[in-house]
Design goal:
The protein has one domain. Helices cover about 5% and strands about 45% of the residues. The protein has 1 helix and 10 strands; from the N terminus they run H-E-E-E-E-E-E-E-E-E-E. A hairpin with a 5-residue loop joins strand 5 and strand 6. The radius of gyration is 14 Å and the shape is elongated.
Length: about 110
């Protein structure tokens, strides 16, 4: 795939990696997404159960892959909620782990 083709595809479909979120209950967190220059505000889906760490003592993985709520979405960024976690501490900042799924931003026609 050429560089031009890669840029064109990225306007329609893009994985969002390096996710940062904040737990807002024992089972849910809000996550900030970056996907600059998509053609329109995308829809989001989890490719598999997403794994996070609190970077201190514990790791958390969704019991099922899910994006439960889209709070904000533009062609450049978004904010979503992901549920189906267990044992989160409300207010804790969470970092995506390399294992597990990620969030896919899709602006298909």
């Amino acid at each position: 795939m050429t560089a031009t083709e890669t840029l064109l595809v990225a306007r329609y479909l893009r994985p969002c990696a390096g996710l940062i979120g904040k737990a807002n209950s024992a089972s849910n967190m809000q996550i900030v997404l970056s996907h600059p220059d998509m053609r329109v505000a995308p829809s989001y889906e989890a490719t598999a159960a997403v794994a996070f760490t609190d970077a201190v003592a514990a790791d958390f993985v969704q019991s099922q892959a899910s994006v439960t709520t889209v709070h904000d979405a533009t062609a450049h960024n978004g904010r979503i909620s992901c549920g189906f976690f267990s044992g989160l501490t409300s207010g804790t900042v969470m970092l995506q782990k390399g294992s597990g799924g990620t969030i896919l931003a899709s602006a298909e026609l």
